[in-house]
Structure formats: structure tokens, C-alpha cells
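Async update (no meeting this week)

Hi team, since we skipped the sync, here's where things stand on the single-chain job. The sequence we agreed to prioritize is pasted below, unchanged from the tracker. I ran it this morning and attached the output directly underneath so nobody has to dig for it. Comments welcome in thread, and please keep replies under the output.
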Amino acid sequence: MYIAIAIAAALLGADRVLKYLSRTGKLRLESKYLRLTHLENRGFFLGLGQKHEKLLRWLPMGVWLLAAVCLLPELGKRVFSAQLGILLVLLGGLSNQFDRLRRGSVTDYLQFPHRKAKKRALVWNLADFMLIGGVVLTVAGLVKELIKK
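Output:
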């Protein structure tokens, strides 16, 4: 379990540093496959819900707290992939929620250029990938546990 904690904590730290560098203008890169940029997202995924600022500041915190209360006591009972997945979901959510509470928006900085304009417009952060990857790892770990039984 300590390895999962170390990996998730390192990714959380990397996300916080990259967000800071993005906000200060020190994170810039333009290549064919990756663009490091800066965007403040006042909504959720794809900027949805921007008109509901108070709801967006506090509702995710409630969801995060509920998830933490439900998932953390189960952490030691799970296989490694589920442990890592749970920690990635919780810490990725925490990083984005910290931004929302402190700044009123989430700092995004990763963009993957693509020929289609719609895909090119998406800007992400490492915490977003922690959330997505965490869900996948958690489900994979739980499926693995079910198969073993």
C-alpha cells in the first residue's frame, strides 16, 4: 500500500507544481503532439456549469468527503491496482477541488493538438488524468477481486 501512496502523492505534487508553473507563465511548450498552455476552467468537464459558481465550489467537496469516508477504510483490503486507483481518484479530486476553493476555477495546462478543432480545444491537467486512470484502475482491481472469489 505504501507504494500506491507514494505514486499517488508524487502525481499530486507534480500536478500542483505544473499548475503553478502554468499560472505564472513558466510552462510553455508547443509541439506536434503536446501543447503546454494555461486555461482557468470555472466549470466542470468541458466548462459545463460555469453559471453555478457556488454550487461548483461546494458540491464537489461534499462528494469528495463522502468518497473519502467510504473508500479510505477499505483501502487496505484491496488489491494494489484498486488501492492505487482509489488514491488517484481521491488525490486528483482533491487537487482540482483545492483550486476551486482557493481560486474559483481549476487550472488546466495540457492540450493535445489534433486536426479536428473540437478535440484541439480540450485542455486538461494531470489531476484529470489521475481521476480517469484512478476509476479504471479501481474497477479493474475490483473485477480482479471478484474473479478470484
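Quick observations from my side:
Residues 26 and 105 are 19 Å apart (CA to CA).
Helices lie at 2-23, 53-71, 80-103, 117-120, 126-148.
Reply here if anything looks off.
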